[in-house]
Amino acid sequence: MARRPTIADVAQLAGVSRATVSFVLNNRPGVALTTQQRVRSAAEELGWTPSRSARALSTGRTRAVGLVLTREPELIGTDPFYPAFMAGIEAVISETGDGLMLQMSRPGDEVETYHRLAADRRVDGVFLTDLRQDDPRPALVTELGLPAVAVGVVEADTDVPTVNLDDRPAVRSAVRHLIELGHRDIAYVAGPDGFVHARRRRQAWADALAEAGLPCGTSLPGGFTAEGGAQATRALLNRSSPPTAIVYGNDLSATAGMAVAQNAGLRLPEDLSVVGFDDVPLASWTSPPLTTCRANPTSWGRAAAQALVETIEQGTAGDVELDPATLVIRGSTGPVPVRGGR
Amino acid sequence: MARRPTIADVAQLAGVSRATVSFVLNNRPGVALTTQQRVRSAAEELGWTPSRSARALSTGRTRAVGLVLTREPELIGTDPFYPAFMAGIEAVISETGDGLMLQMSRPGDEVETYHRLAADRRVDGVFLTDLRQDDPRPALVTELGLPAVAVGVVEADTDVPTVNLDDRPAVRSAVRHLIELGHRDIAYVAGPDGFVHARRRRQAWADALAEAGLPCGTSLPGGFTAEGGAQATRALLNRSSPPTAIVYGNDLSATAGMAVAQNAGLRLPEDLSVVGFDDVPLASWTSPPLTTCRANPTSWGRAAAQALVETIEQGTAGDVELDPATLVIRGSTGPVPVRGGR
DNA sequence: ACCGCTATTTAAACCGGTTCAAGTCTCCGG
DNA sequence: CCGGAGACTTGAACCGGTTTAAATAGCGGT
C-alpha cells in the first residue's frame, strides 16, 4: 500500500508550491481561480486529506474538545443526561469536523485530570459539568489557561462563560401542582448536596412550599441513586404521619421510591403521589406513569458547544440561559387521599 | 503568560542536545545516569510536558482510539451498554495516557464517518460495535488500513480481531427457568433483526424451546424500544390464547411490556411472567422487580481496549471470548397460572 | 522600452518532537 | 604511545502542515 499523499505530492502534481496548496485548502484569498482548480483536482486525484497532526502542530489547535466525566463508574450508566448532552455537543462540533474527547475520572483524580488535559493540549477546551459547591475547576482552568465553559451554575466569581438551564421552575410547578391537588405534606428526596443542581432543585421545592405558606417539609438525602431513593422513601413512609406526596431529585430514585411504596401496600397515586426529575425514557412506562420534570440536555449540549467554540476562538463568550425545565404530568400524581381525623 | 517550554528549553537548561532529552523522555537505554537526572530535573523545573501534537506528527501515532456511536439520537440515552463499555475502555487506555474519541453518526452516514476517521488519522484504531448482518465495516476498516476490533460477532470472514460476550446462555437459562415454572407458551419480543446480537438472542430463545421439545413460539419485533415493546405486548395479550410468559430483547421493552400488562389488569407474575435483558439499574426497582439477563459491559470494554491496543501495536490480536451473560431471577417470573380447561 | 502597481506565487522558517548516522570521550590492551 | 572498542552525545534530517516576507508576473500608462 502506497504511503498516503502529503501536501508536497499535491503541490507537485498541480505544479505549484506547497504554500499555494495550503492557501487553497484554507481558502485564503489571493489565489488565481485556475490555480485553485488545478490544486483541487490534484488533491482529488491523489485522495489527499491534510494530516490533522501536522495541522495541529503548526496551528496550535487540535480541533477537539474534552468532556470529563467524574462519576463513580457504577453510576455512569444511570444518568440519561450525558448521552443526550454529548449528542448535542457532537451536532455542533462535527459541523466543523471537530471531535469530542472523553475522559473519565474518579472523583479524587479530577484536578489531576484537568492538569493533564491542559498540559497535553490534546483538546482546545473543556466542558465543566456536574458543578459542585466550591468547585475548584473554574479557577483551575482559568489558571491553566484552558478554555472552558461551565454547564450549569457556578457559585463563585469566575471568568468562565456559563451555559445554564434552570431546573427550578419545573420543580416549583411540581410542588404547585401537588398543592392544587390538595397536598399539604410534601416531602423531598434530594441528590447529593455537593452538586449545585441538586441543591438548587431542593431549594426550589422548599421555596415553593414557603410561597404557598406551607411549613417547610421534610427533605432526606437520596443520593440520586435507586438504593438511596428507596431508603429515603422507607424512612418517610415509616413516620407517624407520612407525607402524602414525595418529590424526588431524579427519576431513578423516584422509581425506586415507587417500588418501595407499592411493596408497602400503597396504591399510587391514590395513597401517595410521586414526582421525579429527568423524564428518562422509562418514565412513561412505569405503573403508574411517572409525573416528572423534563429538561433538554441535547439543546444544552448544543449551546455549551457553541459557547466553547466561541471561547476557544475569541477568548470568551457570553453566558447563555436556556429554556427552563418543565413539568410533565402523568399518572403518579393525584388528589390527596382523604384521611380520617381532624 | 510565558510560552510553554519546549524540548529545546529543557535541553538548554540541562546542557544537552534535544536528542538526549528525547531519549530520556522515552527512557531509551544508552544515556548516562547523571545525564538522565539532569534532564529530568530540568524538565521538572520548567514544568515541561512534551507536546502531543508534535509527537503525533513525528511518530505517526495519535494515542487515541475512536468509538463511533451509530444510533438514532433519541435512542442514545436508552442503552446502559455504552456508558459502562466506555468506562471499561477508559480504564485500559488511560493507563498509558491514551484518550477516547467519540463520534456520533447517523445510521446513513456511517461509512463516511469511518472514511473520515481513517483519512484524518485522528485515532489509531476504532471499535466496531452494534454489529449488523452483512456489516460493511469489517471489510471497510481492513481496506482503509484502520486498526479495529469487532465488539460482538462478525458473521463474515474477516481479519478483524473479535471480542465477544455470548448473550445466549442467559436467554436459554431464562427459557429453561420459565419451563421449569410450568410455562409452555413463551413468546419473544425481539430487537431489530439487523443487529447480530438481537438476532442471536432471539435464536437462543427459539433453540431453548426446541431443545425442550416445545413448539416454536411467537416472536414479535419490539425494536429494543419502550414503545415497540409496549405494542408487541399489546398484540400478544390480545391473542385468543395469550402466552403465559414473555421474554424481551432488552429491559427497556420489558419494562414497557410490564406496564402494558398491568394496565390490562394482569398481575405479575401471577398472570404473566416477564424476562428482560441488560439488567439496567432500574430493573431491581420495577414492581415486581424484573427477572433479566446480565452481561458485563465494563469487562467487555476492557477486553476490547486491550485487543485494540494490541492490534495497533502488533498489527493483530487474538480473538477473545468473555464470560457469557447470566440470568438474574427476580420477581417478574413465577409459576404458570392455572387455567381453566384441559 | 520602461515604470509603477497590483495580483499571484514561492522560498524558507517554524511548530516541537523523533531518529539515525556520525561524532567525541574514556579506558584498556599491546 | 597508539589503535580500537565501547559508552555517550549530538547534528541534522524528517514528520506534514502554516505563514510571512520577498520574488515574479502581468498590465496599463507614458
Description of the molecule:
The structure is a homodimer of 342-residue chains. Chain A is of the alpha/beta class and 342 residues long. Chain A is 42% helix and 15% strand. Chain A contains twelve helices and twelve strands. The first copy, chain A, has a six-stranded parallel sheet, sandwiched between helices. A four-stranded parallel sheet of chain A has the order 7-6-8-9, sandwiched between helices. In chain A, strand 1, helix 5 and strand 2 form a beta-alpha-beta unit. In chain A, helix 1 (7-14) crosses helix 3 (33-46) and helix 6 packs parallel to helix 7. The longest helix of chain A is centred in the C-terminal third of the chain and has 18 residues, at 297-314. The mean pLDDT of chain A is 93. Chain A binds a DNA duplex (30 and 30 nucleotides) through helix 2 and helix 4. Chains A, B: This is LacI family DNA-binding transcriptional regulator. Chains A, B: Residues 5-59 form the HTH lacI-type domain. Chains A, B: InterPro entries: HTH_LacI, LacI/GalR-like_sensor, Lambda_DNA-bd_dom_sf, Peripla_BP_I.
